[in-house]
Every structure is written in C-alpha cells, then in structure tokens.
Q: What sequence folds into this?
C-alpha cells in the first residue's frame, strides 16, 4: 500500500501537490443556498443523498440549438460533426445539396438526449415563404441560441432572421462553412497565403452583414465540418457555450465528446466546480474509516468521480484499442491515474489526510458538522480530487496535443 502511494504522488507535478485553498465564495456556487436551505429544513442525515442528486442534475437540463440556413450550407454535416458522428453513421443527419428539411428536425446528442440540435428549413422555401411565417411555425422562442449558416454569402433572409433573434434577446452566431474547399481552390494559385484568404472571406462577410450594425471579425466563424481541428470550429464551439445560460452551458460542456484543448480545459473547470460538492457528500456520508486511510470517506463516490474525470477528459481504458494506440510514455501516464479499486483510491487519498489541512476547511463546512472526522473527510477528499483532476487534465492535454499534431500532418 505504502509503495503504491509513493509511486503515485512522486509522479504528480509540483503544481498539483501544492495546496489549493478553498475560497469562502465557493459555497455560493450554484447550489450553495439550496443546500443550506435543505439542512435548515430537513437536517443533516440525508444531505449526502441530496448532494449526490445535485451532482447529476446536469443530465436533466434541456438545451435546444437552432441550426438554420439555405440548403447546401453544411448544416447537417455540422450537426453530425458536433455530435461526434460521421455523415454515414446510423444516427447521422441526412446530408444532401437539395433542401432535405421541410419541417424542423431534431437530432439528440448520443451522450445526452436532452441536448437537441434542430435542423430548421430555410426562409423562402414553400412552407416558409417569409420571416413572419417562419417565426410562427418554427416557434422561435423555444431555442436557446441560433446558428446561421452560409457557404457563399449571407442572404437577405439570413439578415432578417438575425435581426429578429437579436430583438428577442437571444444569441445568434454567423458561420461560413466549407472553408477547406476555399483553401484548396486558392492553393492552385502561384502566390498562395492562407491567412490572406481567410481575411478576405471575413471582410467580405462583414460587408455583407452591414445591415446588422456593428459586426466584428470575431463574430464570424470560418469552419470545415470535416476538419474540426482547423480554423474556427473550436472557437465556434466555445462561442456556442458562451451564448448559453450557466446551467445549459454546464450540460452541453459535459455532453460534448469532441475534445480540443480549449474544450478539455472547460470540462476540467466544470469538474473542479463539482469538487466541493463531492467532498461535502463524502464527509456527510462517511461513517467507517477505510483500511489504509486514517479518515472516513465515501470511497465509492470518490472512485466514481475519478472515473468520471477520466471519461470526460478522454483518457482511454487500459486494454482498449484507443489505449493501444498511445505512445508508451502516454500509456504509463494513464496507468498512473488508473485508480479503480478501494485500495488504490485509499492509497492515493492518504497523501492528503493531514490534520494541518483541517483548520482551513472547517470554516467552510456549514452543514457537515463540527466533528473532526467530517472536517478531515472533507479536506482529504477536496485536496485529493483537486490533485487527481490536475493530473488527469495534464495527461489528457498531452495525449490530445500529440493526436492533433498527427492529424494536422495528414491534412
């Protein structure tokens, strides 16, 4: 047990071994007031179950994104790409250059059925001849944000819709697709400069969108649905998240499976925001110390949370095809954070069970109680998960960077 513990902690970067002190304001995050109200009303005995349920509420939040634009602009391919599907997958949106959408068609995310991408028909089609008819039939108010697509130039109908969405207080994003085709066409020229091509397209879009008022280059996204690692696809994904209210943003972030460096970091930030709740639930539920660990923690909850980190940040399971594709050094990184048994998790957490941490944390545990066991449990779980998540994030970023470099070399 002790040897395993030494091996794990010695391989953690120093930045992850440095204590990350909790801020009192953390207790005001999302569910803080609700938890305190629960304790005042129902007491402490069932608080662990209450917090556990709150940890899973992100599954229940509905997100409805409207995908609109003329036929042939890549709407369906985008819906497939952001859901992590190929155009020929069974659950993929139908792809075609003709208008394949006559009614709003919903496509759920494979990882979360409450995340819905709505493929909307374009304005000017027989069933939607004008903006007034369009707004009424597609039920404009039901969508959290609008993504307006073009592959050439934004039309008058696109501008009308953008104005209407803006006046309703909702967010819209302007997306120019098939940028890879533009780049390939320009590469045949003697003096090719990719940045100049992209700048020319952005400037053309801005002129095209003058009726909308102040439009910045950053408001326009140049993407290829078939190369999500290039151009503005990742920036678009971040902008979609930023356009959503906090609960929808959390739900969509944890549901998306296409990982880029920015997406991975956003996932990690949300996971860090969960740690105090996991620590509180662990402290409230833990009654019996774990063998090899001097404090009582909810080892099952902690093990599940570590597994959740690995899944969310894209670390493959040992023995999987994805694991076999990793370099030897990256395989070793994954093995070092493969904490799946009670003994492994207890050995890892023992490094953070110290009475010197209790004073800092006990001030911020208004519902666990004043007992040393509960306070120590909270501190141990909080520190341990902070450092474990940091190590998972670092490993995932390294693996992702190597994979992205390989993909770019093949473009």
A:
């Amino acid at each position: 047990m002790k040897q395993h513990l030494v091996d794990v902690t010695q391989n953690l970067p120093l930045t992850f071994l440095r204590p990350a002190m909790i801020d009192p304001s953390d207790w005001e995050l999302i569910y803080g007031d609700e938890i305190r109200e629960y304790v005042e009303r129902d007491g402490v005995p069932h608080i662990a179950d209450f917090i556990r349920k709150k940890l899973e509420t992100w599954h229940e939040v509905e997100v409805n994104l409207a995908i609109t634009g003329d036929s042939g602009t890549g709407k369906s391919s985008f819906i497939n790409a952001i859901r992590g599907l190929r155009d020929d997958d069974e659950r993929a949106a139908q792809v075609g250059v003709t208008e394949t959408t006559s009614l709003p068609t919903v496509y759920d995310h494979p990882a979360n059925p409450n995340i819905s991408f709505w493929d909307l028909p374009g304005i000017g089609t027989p069933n939607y001849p004008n903006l007034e008819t369009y707004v009424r039939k597609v039920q404009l108010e039901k969508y959290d944000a609008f993504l307006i697509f073009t592959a050439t130039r934004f039309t008058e109908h696109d501008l009308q819709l953008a104005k209407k969405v803006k006046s309703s207080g909702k967010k819209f994003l302007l997306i120019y697709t098939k940028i890879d085709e533009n780049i390939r066409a320009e590469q045949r020229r003697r003096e090719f400069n990719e940045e100049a091509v992209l700048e020319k397209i952005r400037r053309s879009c801005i002129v095209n969108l003058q009726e909308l008022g102040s439009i910045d280059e950053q408001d326009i996204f140049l993407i290829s649905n078939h190369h999500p690692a290039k151009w503005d696809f990742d920036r678009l994904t971040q902008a979609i998240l930023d356009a959503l209210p906090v609960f929808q943003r959390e739900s969509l972030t944890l549901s998306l499976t296409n990982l880029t460096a920015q997406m991975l970091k956003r996932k990690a930030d949300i996971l860090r925001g969960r740690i105090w709740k996991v620590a509180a639930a662990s402290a409230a539920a833990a009654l019996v110390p774990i063998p090899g660990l001097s404090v009582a923690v909810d080892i099952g909850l902690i093990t599940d949370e570590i597994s959740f980190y690995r899944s969310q940040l894209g670390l493959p399971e040992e023995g999987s095809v994805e694991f076999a594709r990793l370099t030897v050094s990256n395989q070793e990184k994954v093995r070092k954070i493969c904490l799946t048994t009670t003994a492994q998790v207890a050995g890892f957490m023992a490094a953070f069970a110290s009475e010197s941490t209790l004073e800092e944390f006990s001030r911020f545990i208004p519902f666990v109680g004043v007992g040393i066991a509960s306070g120590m449990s909270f501190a141990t779980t909080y520190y341990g998960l902070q450092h474990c998540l940091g190590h998972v994030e670092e490993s995932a970023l390294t693996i992702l960077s190597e994979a992205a470099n390989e993909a770019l070399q093949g473009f």
